[in-house]
C-alpha cells in the first residue's frame, strides 16, 4: 500500500470521526442564537388639549391591556413625527395608529413609510382610522398605497366606504371576542369593502351593504397585525361620557401582536400572590377631626388604622405643613416623628408645598386661582421650584423627621399628579421612587376596563408610576359626600383581580379620611377586607421597583418552550397564558416555582439574580418530586435543594405564608429555623406543604 493510501486511510479512520464529534459538540455548545422579544409598541396619535400624552384614545383604553400582556409603549404625537429610520425602529415590535379622522398633511409619505415598516417585519395595528385616505385639502391619495397596507395585513381593500347605517347589516360577529362589556349597536356604524384574502386572518366583525356582494371586515386580526374601525371599538354614554368595550382589547392586542404563549413580566404579583400595599397622601395630617376633638386626623389614622392593622403603610407628609420654617410647628414635627417611628410605616413625601399643577401651562393659566395652583404650604413670595418640591422635601423628612434607618426615598405626586418628563427625571436622578396618578375605578357604575389605568405613563425617557386604585377623594365626589364612598373601592380591587389580575391592591387615601366618622369606618372596612385576602404584603417602594423591573426586563426566545430573561430587577413574576405547559424546573435556571391561576401560569424568578432561564414542558407531572415554591407572601432568597429537602432565606412583612409543591404526598417534614424550636408539618395527598406564620430569616425543610 502506498504512503498516500496509508495517509488517506488514517484520515478516514481517525480524523473524520473526530471531526464529526467536534462538530456535534460545537452544535450543542453553540445553539442557534436566541431571538430578542421586542416588548415595545410605537403609538402614533394626534394631540388635542393641554395634556395630550395623558388624554388620548390609546392611553384611556389600550395601554392597560398592552401592559397586562407584558408590553410597553412609546407615545409620539404625529404632529411632531419625524419618520424614524430603520435603526431607530429596530426596538419596536409593532406600530399602533390611533388617529381621529381620515386625513393628514402628507398621507402618501406616511403610507410609504408604513409599508416599509411592514416589509421589515413590523406588525401594524389600526385603531379607529388609518388616518391617511386624504390630505388636508381632501384630495384622495393613490389607492394603491392603501391597498398595499391592507394587503400586507392579509386583506384586499376595495374602498366603497359608507356610514349610511340604514343600508348596513352585520354579516358575522364572533361573539367569543366581541360584545365584551357591551353589545354592538343594532345598526352597524360603518362599512368598507375590506375582504380577507389569507386563511391566517380572523374576522371578528363583518358588515354587508345592500347591493354589495362582498362582506367587509371592520374588526380583524392576522399575522401582520390587526384593525378595528370606529364604531366597533367602544360605546360612550352621551351624558356622562362613561365608556364600555365592544371588543375584547386584551385578546385583540394578543392576536394582533401574535403573543399566544409568550411570557409576560407581571409586577402585580410576587411568588404567585397578588401584591398589596397602602400609600397615604399627607393632606389633612394635622387637620381637624370630628371623631375626637382633642386630636387631629393624623393621630386618629395612627391609632385606628396603623396601630390596629398589621399591614405595610407608606405614609407621607407635606413638608411645608410640618417644617416650622415654612407653615409648620414643633407640635407637627413631633407628630410626624411619631408617625415615622411606627414599625409598619414607610416614610414618604407628598412634596414641600403641595402644588396643584406641575404643568407650567396650567400653572400660568388665568383660569385657576394662582394661590391654589402653586401650592398650599409655601413661604410668602415662593415661586415654583421642582427640585425643592421633590428632592428637598425628601431630604427634610430624612434629616428632621424619620429615623436614621428609614430615610425618605418615596415621593407621591400632589394635586393633578401631572409631572413633566424633566420633573420625573429630577426624582430619578436623586434616587427617589415616584408614585401617583391613574386613579383606577371599576365598579357597578364605572363598569369597564376603561376606568382602569395602565401601570405607568411614559414621559420621554422617564416613567411616572401609577397607583393601583383610586383614592377616597374620587369616591366621595371630591370630598363632598357620601363620606363612606371609599368603601366601594373594594369592588374595584375585586374586579382588577378577576378574571385577570391587572392591578395590585393599593389602599390609597389621605389623612383627612380621619375627619368623619363615616369616612373612618369606610377606611376600616377596606382594611378589614384586604387583611382577609391571600396577598403578598409589601411597601409602596417595593411595588414601584417591581414596575421598574417590568420596564427594564428583557426576554429572549430560544424556541417556543425556551426563554431567557435579563434585566428584570425586582419584577420576579412572569405569566404565560397557555395553561397546558408548566416550567420544567430541573431544566430551568433561577426559577424557584410556579402556580396555575385562572388567567395563566405564574412563574416565580429567584431574587437577586440578573438572568433566568425558563424551559417549558407539557408534562404536568414533571415536577411531582421536585420541591418548588407554589405561593409565598414574601421573597424566597437563596433557595437551595438538599438531599432531603430545601433551605432558603425568607423575607416578608410581619408574618408570612409559604406553600410548597413537589413534596412527598402525605409525609412529615421537619421545619428548622434559628432561635425557634423545630416543628413538624405534614403534606397533603397532592404533595402540597404549607408553612404559616413564618417570619423573616433562614428556614430549612427536611423530610423525616
* Overall pLDDT: 92
Biggest sheet layout: 8 strands, mixed
Strand content: 25-35%
Secondary structure class reads alpha+beta
Total strands: 39
* Percent helix: 10-25%
Taking strands numbered 1, 2, ... along the chain, how are they ordered across the largest sheet?
3-2-4-5-11-10-9-7
Spatial shape:
globular
Radius of gyration: 29 Å
Q: Would you identify the regions where 5 or more consecutive residues have pLDDT less than 50?
A: 1-13, 15-31
Q: Give the number of helices.
A: 17
Distance between the termini: 71 Å
Could you describe the 3D structure shown?
The protein is α+β, with helices and mostly antiparallel strands. Strand 9 and strand 10 form a beta hairpin. It has 17 helices and 39 strands. Helix 2 packs across helix 6 and helix 4 runs parallel beside helix 5. The N terminus is likely disordered. The strands form 10 sheets. An 8-stranded mixed sheet has the order 3-2-4-5-11-10-9-7, with helices on both faces. The radius of gyration is 29 Å and the shape is globular.
Amino acid at each position: 500500500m502506498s504512503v498516500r493510501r496509508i495517509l488517506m486511510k488514517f484520515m478516514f479512520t481517525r480524523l473524520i470521526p473526530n471531526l464529526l464529534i467536534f462538530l456535534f459538540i460545537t452544535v450543542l455548545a453553540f445553539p442557534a442564537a436566541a431571538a430578542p422579544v421586542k416588548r415595545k409598541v410605537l403609538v402614533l396619535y394626534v394631540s388635542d388639549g393641554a395634556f395630550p400624552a395623558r388624554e388620548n384614545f390609546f392611553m384611556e383604553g389600550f395601554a392597560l391591556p398592552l401592559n397586562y400582556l407584558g408590553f410597553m409603549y412609546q407615545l409620539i404625537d404625529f404632529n411632531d413625527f419625524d419618520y424614524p429610520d430603520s435603526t431607530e425602529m429596530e426596538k419596536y415590535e409593532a406600530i399602533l395608529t390611533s388617529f381621529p379622522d381620515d386625513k393628514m398633511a402628507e398621507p402618501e409619505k406616511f403610507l410609504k413609510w408604513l409599508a416599509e415598516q411592514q416589509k421589515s417585519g413590523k406588525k401594524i395595528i389600526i385603531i379607529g382610522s388609518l388616518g391617511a385616505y386624504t390630505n388636508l385639502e381632501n384630495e384622495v391619495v393613490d389607492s394603491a398605497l392603501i391597498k398595499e397596507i391592507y394587503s400586507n395585513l392579509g386583506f384586499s381593500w376595495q374602498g366603497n366606504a359608507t356610514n349610511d347605517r340604514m343600508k348596513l347589516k352585520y354579516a358575522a360577529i364572533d361573539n367569543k371576542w366581541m360584545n365584551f362589556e357591551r353589545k354592538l349597536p343594532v345598526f352597524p356604524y360603518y362599512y368598507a369593502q375590506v375582504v380577507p384574502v389569507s386563511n391566517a386572518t380572523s374576522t371578528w366583525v363583518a358588515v354587508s351593504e345592500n347591493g354589495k356582494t362582498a362582506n367587509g371586515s371592520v374588526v380583524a386580526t392576522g399575522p401582520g397585525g390587526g384593525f378595528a374601525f370606529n364604531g366597533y371599538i367602544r360605546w360612550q354614554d352621551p351624558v356622562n361620557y362613561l365608556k364600555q368595550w365592544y371588543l375584547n382589547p386584551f385578546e385583540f392586542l394578543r392576536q394582533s401582536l401574535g403573543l399566544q404563549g409568550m411570557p409576560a413580566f407581571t409586577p402585580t404579583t410576587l411568588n404567585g400572590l397578588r401584591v398589596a400595599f397602602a400609600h397615604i397622601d399627607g393632606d389633612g395630617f394635622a387637620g381637624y377631626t370630628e371623631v375626637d376633638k382633642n386630636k387631629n386626623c393624623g393621630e386618629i389614622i395612627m391609632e385606628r388604622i396603623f396601630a390596629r392593622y398589621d399591614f405595610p403603610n407608606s405614609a407621607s407628609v407635606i413638608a411645608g405643613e410640618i417644617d416650622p420654617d415654612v407653615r409648620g410647628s414643633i407640635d407637627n414635627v413631633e407628630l410626624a416623628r411619631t408617625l415615622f417611628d411606627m414599625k409598619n410605616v414607610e416614610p414618604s413625601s407628598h412634596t414641600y408645598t403641595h402644588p396643584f399643577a406641575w404643568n407650567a401651562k396650567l400653572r400660568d393659566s388665568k383660569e385657576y386661582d394662582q394661590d391654589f395652583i402653586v401650592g398650599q404650604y409655601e413661604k410668602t413670595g415662593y415661586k415654583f421650584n421642582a427640585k425643592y418640591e421633590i428632592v428637598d422635601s425628601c431630604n427634610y423628612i430624612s434629616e428632621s423627621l424619620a429615623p436614621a434607618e428609614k430615610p425618605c426615598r418615596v415621593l407621591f405626586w400632589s394635586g393633578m399628579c401631572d409631572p413633566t418628563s424633566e420633573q420625573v427625571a429630577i426624582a430619578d436622578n436623586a434616587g427617589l421612587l415616584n408614585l401617583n396618578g391613574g386613579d383606577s375605578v371599576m365598579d357597578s357604575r364605572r363598569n369597564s376596563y376603561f376606568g382602569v389605568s395602565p401601570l405607568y405613563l411614559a414621559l420621554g425617557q422617564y416613567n411616572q408610576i401609577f397607583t393601583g386604585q383610586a383614592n377616597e377623594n374620587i369616591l366621595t365626589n371630591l370630598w363632598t359626600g357620601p363620606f363612606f364612598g371609599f368603601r366601594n373601592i373594594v369592588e374595584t380591587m375585586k374586579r382588577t383581580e378577576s378574571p385577570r389580575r391587572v392591578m395590585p391592591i393599593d389602599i390609597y387615601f389621605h389623612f383627612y379620611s380621619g375627619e368623619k366618622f363615616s369616612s373612618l369606618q369606610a377606611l376600616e372596612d377596606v382594611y378589614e377586607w384586604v387583611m382577609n385576602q391571600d396577598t403578598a404584603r409589601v411597601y409602596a417602594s417595593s411595588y414601584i421597583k417591581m414596575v421598574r423591573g417590568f420596564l427594564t426586563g428583557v426576554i429572549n426566545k430560544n424556541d417556543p418552550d425556551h426563554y431567557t430573561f435579563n434585566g428584570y430587577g425586582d419584577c420576579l413574576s412572569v405569566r404565560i397564558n397557555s395553561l397546558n405547559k408548566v416550567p420544567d424546573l430541573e431544566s430551568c435556571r433561577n426559577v424557584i416555582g410556579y402556580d396555575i391561576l385562572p388567567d395563566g401560569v405564574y412563574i416565580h424568578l429567584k431574587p437577586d439574580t440578573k438572568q433566568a432561564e425558563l424551559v417549558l414542558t407539557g408534562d404536568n407531572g414533571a415536577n411531582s418530586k421536585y420541591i418548588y415554591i407554589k405561593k409565598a407572601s414574601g421573597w424566597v432568597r437563596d433557595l437551595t435543594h438538599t438531599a432531603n429537602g430545601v433551605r432558603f432565606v425568607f423575607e416578608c412583612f410581619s408574618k408570612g405564608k409559604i406553600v410548597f409543591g413537589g413534596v412527598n404526598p402525605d409525609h412529615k417534614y421537619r421545619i428548622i429555623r434559628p432561635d425557634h424550636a423545630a416543628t413538624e408539618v405534614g403534606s397533603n395527598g397532592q404533595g402540597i406543604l404549607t408553612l404559616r406564620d413564618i417570619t423573616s430569616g433562614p428556614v430549612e425543610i427536611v423530610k423525616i
